[in-house]
UniProtKB/TrEMBL annotation, chain A:
Keywords: FAD, Flavoprotein, Oxidoreductase. GO terms for molecular function: acyl-CoA dehydrogenase activity; flavin adenine dinucleotide binding. Residues 230-378 form the Acyl-CoA dehydrogenase/oxidase C-terminal domain. Gene3D superfamilies: Acyl-CoA dehydrogenase/oxidase, N-terminal domain (1.10.540.10), Butyryl-CoA Dehydrogenase, subunit A, domain 2 (2.40.110.10), Butyryl-CoA Dehydrogenase, subunit A, domain 3 (1.20.140.10). Its cofactor is FAD. It comes from Solihabitans fulvus. Residues 124-216 form the Acyl-CoA oxidase/dehydrogenase middle domain. It holds the Pfam family Acyl-CoA_dh_1. Residues 10-120 form the Acyl-CoA dehydrogenase/oxidase N-terminal domain. InterPro entries: Acyl-CoA_DH_CS, Acyl-CoA_Oxase/DH_mid-dom, Acyl-CoA_Oxase/DH_mid-dom_sf, AcylCo_DH-like_C, AcylCo_DH/oxidase_C, AcylCoA_DH/ox_N, AcylCoA_DH/ox_N_sf, AcylCoA_DH/oxidase_NM_dom_sf. This is Acyl-CoA dehydrogenase.
Automatic annotation (TrEMBL), chain B:
The electron transfer flavoprotein serves as a specific electron acceptor for other dehydrogenases. It transfers the electrons to the main respiratory chain via ETF-ubiquinone oxidoreductase (ETF dehydrogenase). This is Electron transfer flavoprotein subunit beta. Belongs to the ETF beta-subunit/FixA family. Keywords: Electron transport, Transport. GO terms for molecular function: electron transfer activity. Residues 23-213 form the Electron transfer flavoprotein alpha/beta-subunit N-terminal domain. One of its GO terms (cellular component) is cytosol. It comes from Solihabitans fulvus. It comes from the Bacteria. SMART domains: ETF. SUPFAM superfamilies: Adenine nucleotide alpha hydrolases-like. InterPro entries: ETF_a/b_N (IPR014730), ETF_b (IPR012255), ETF_beta_N (IPR033948), Rossmann-like_a/b/a_fold (IPR014729).
């Protein structure tokens, strides 16, 4: 049973119908095989681009869809229920557009943002490093000014879309002033000296490309720097607040898919002469899963509505990310339990959902970091 | 090149479809309603012809208020405007009444060169509307086509049936009905969705079209459904063990079922 949504407008309803149709007809049928074979679905992102779905939450004046986060996140959720790699990729793309959209100069936005938001380009977000994960201020990738350019050297890690992205939103060190020495650069994917390492062999999201990204003397024009030197970390953390909402929505979509599959199976699977959903032991498990999914959805939507009204939402975004991704882990694990032996096989999608759920607790700030953010907000 | 496309909102073939107990008409509440897929192809063909020859694409739907959703989808694909005939008196209309209403509604559009319809709807499956409509409008009918071209004032089409392929020509204006092979319909885009809400939709009643309510709906229908029952569930299949003559056994089974 698909999620029942209360949407703010007819256009939002029509948009969600379109997204469900694309998810059902174009994404869901291909997901299992592509994940099994590790095939990155570049075509799926082109389709999203043609459908105008790559810049939904940005203002229309700068080429976006002008949609509130409340609606955009539900689009992400529907996509995630069909294919997490695509939804997570869209979330990453949207986040990678954020620094330019929010902090870029008009001239920079006019020049680059149109194709990023309204075209078929795909973005990546290059913040983490092998030794700078939860502590991004310790990054060492360096952008050294040389005439009209920066020369970038260093290695970024865990970069979704590394090697396939058309542009990278890069955070690199421009001075040794700790967290104040980091700047944001918009790097073209074809820049000489930028290369992706072989893909990480991940537990889930195997259709997505995640790899280290190497910068070896890569020249990036200084006019591609977003905001002033040293503003990079603040921009990065601000982008993450919104990115976390994206991951929360992805987590709810994944959990909804696991719940739907579990209910479908529990109705049809018979033991002791009746459907297993008619045993209270299974029924209560399913009820808890449904309660988890719906409360996680309510949590991210509340955070989104705060964002849409211009209210502070850092704590709510961290809570939404924490609650939704822990819920996804629990619900997908329980889904495997409901399906029993079948659930443990690759003939059913729930074992994949369970593997995919794990990373949601790790990236865009581990769930320990989310608690740290929540705690810090409480202490203020 | 002004084109009218007939569209219909039907229960989603992905959901369970039922008839109401009261009057054996479609239970519209029981299933999700969508723009019929064959109509998406009809709209797609109209948009392609418009891209090549210019003009306006008008979508025409007869159905309850909720059919506006199907109309909006056609508009978000790119059609220019719409006519929605909605009237409680139309409930239970048969194909003859439906065609009469559609013919009158087409009459409200100026300078129509082509009417495009799907060959049959996925719910009623009568497949008769395009032909009846052509008769009522006094236009040539070019039905069941897999390919359409416009050459000046001539429409050229390939009609495909079980008997084979026929190459047809007719002078415009004409009524064309398309099959599933005609094209792959485009998805609407988000821009299309936003544009659709500003497009003109004329809502007309039976009286607006100058028809007598007694001519349409259940009262005006030439036939009535007295009884309806759901299809019995599928019975267990018959298993054939292949001991060397499996093929012959299957053939015997099919002959027994009068399938070959």
């Amino acid at each position: 049973m698909p999620a029942e949504r209360v949407l703010p407008s007819t256009e939002a309803e029509d948009l969600l119908s379109l997204v469900r149709e694309i998810a059902r007809d174009e994404l869901a049928p291909k997901a299992a095989e592509a994940e099994e074979q590790g095939l990155f679905p570049r075509d799926a992102f082109r389709l999203l681009g043609r459908s105008g779905l790559l810049g939904l939450p940005y203002p229309e004046e700068i080429g976006g869809g002008g949609l509130p986060y409340e609606v955009y996140l539900q689009v992400l959720e529907e996509l995630a229920a069909a294919w997490l790699t695509v939804a997570e990729g869209l979330s990453v793309h949207v986040m990678s557009c954020y620094p330019l959209a929010r902090y870029g100069a008009d001239e920079q936005r006019d020049r680059w943002l149109g194709d990023m938001l309204g075209g078929e380009l795909l973005g990546a977000y290059a913040l983490s490093e092998p030794h700078a994960g939860s502590d991004p201020a310790s990054m060492t990738t360096r952008a050294t000014r040389d005439g009209a350019d920066y020369v970038v050297n260093g290695t970024k890690a865990w970069i979704t879309h590394a090697g396939v992205a058309d542009f990278y939103t890069l955070m690199a060190r421009t001075s040794d002033d700790g967290g104040n020495g980091i700047s944001c650069l918009l790097v073209d994917g074809g820049t000489e000296g930028v290369s992706a390492a072989p893909r990480e062999r991940t537990m889930g999201l195997t259709g997505s490309t995640v790899a280290q990204l190497r910068f070896q003397g890569a020249r990036v024009a200084a006019e591609r720097r977003v905001a002033q030197e040293g503003a990079g970390l603040k921009i990065a953390l601000s982008a993450l607040d919104s990115g976390r909402l994206g991951i929360a929505a992805c987590a709810v979509g994944l959990a909804q898919a696991a719940l739907d599959e579990s209910v479908r199976y529990a109705k049809q699977r018979k033991q002791f002469g009746k459907s297993i959903i008619d045993f209270q032991g299974v029924e209560f498990l399913l009820a808890d899963m449904a309660a988890g999914v719906e409360s996680a959805r309510a949590t991210y939507l509340e955070a989104a509505r705060r964002r849409d009204r211009g209210l502070p939402f850092r704590r709510q975004a961290a809570i939404a990310k924490l609650v939704a991704t822990d819920t996804a882990m629990k619900v997908t694990t329980d889904a495997v339990q409901v399906l029993g032996g079948a659930g443990y096989t690759r003939d059913f999608p729930v074992e994949r959902y369970m593997r995919e759920a794990k990373v949601l607790q790790i990236f865009e700030g581990t769930n320990q970091i989310q608690r740290l953010v929540i705690g810090r907000e409480l202490r203020r | 090149m002004n084109i009218v496309v007939l569209v219909k909102q039907v229960p989603d073939t992905w959901s369970e479809r039922k008839l109401t107990d009261a009057d054996h008409t479609l239970d519209r509440e029981s299933a999700d309603a969508v723009l019929d897929e064959i109509n998406e192809r009809a709209v797609e063909e109209a948009l392609k012809l418009q891209e090549a020859h210019g003009g306006e694409v008008t979508v025409l739907a007869m159905g309850p208020d909720r059919a506006t959703e199907a109309i909006r989808k056609a508009l978000s694909m790119g059609a220019d405007k719409a006519i929605h005939v909605s009237d409680a008196a139309l409930h239970g209309s048969d194909v003859l009444a439906t065609a009469k209403v559609l013919a009158k509604a087409i009459g409200t559009v100026e300078g129509v060169d082509l009417v495009i319809a799907g060959n049959e709807a996925t719910d009623g499956r009568a497949g008769a509307i395009p032909a009846i409509l052509a008769e009522l409008l006094g236009l040539p009918q070019v039905t069941q086509v897999r390919k359409v071209e416009i050459d000046g004032t001539t429409v050229k089409a390939e009609r495909e049936t079980e008997e084979g392929v026929a190459f047809l020509e007719a002078t415009l204006p004409a009524v064309v009905s398309v099959t599933e092979k005609i094209n792959e319909p485009r998805y609407p885009s988000f821009k299309g969705i936003m544009a659709a809400k500003k497009k003109k939709v004329d809502t007309l009643s039976v009286a607006d079209l100058g028809l007598d309510p007694a001519e349409v709906g259940l009262t005006g229908a030439w036939s009535s459904v007295l009884e309806a029952a759901p299809k019995p569930p599928r019975s267990a299949g018959q298993r054939v063990e292949d001991d060397g003559n499996g093929g012959a056994q299957i053939a015997e089974y099919l002959v027994g079922q009068k399938l070959i």
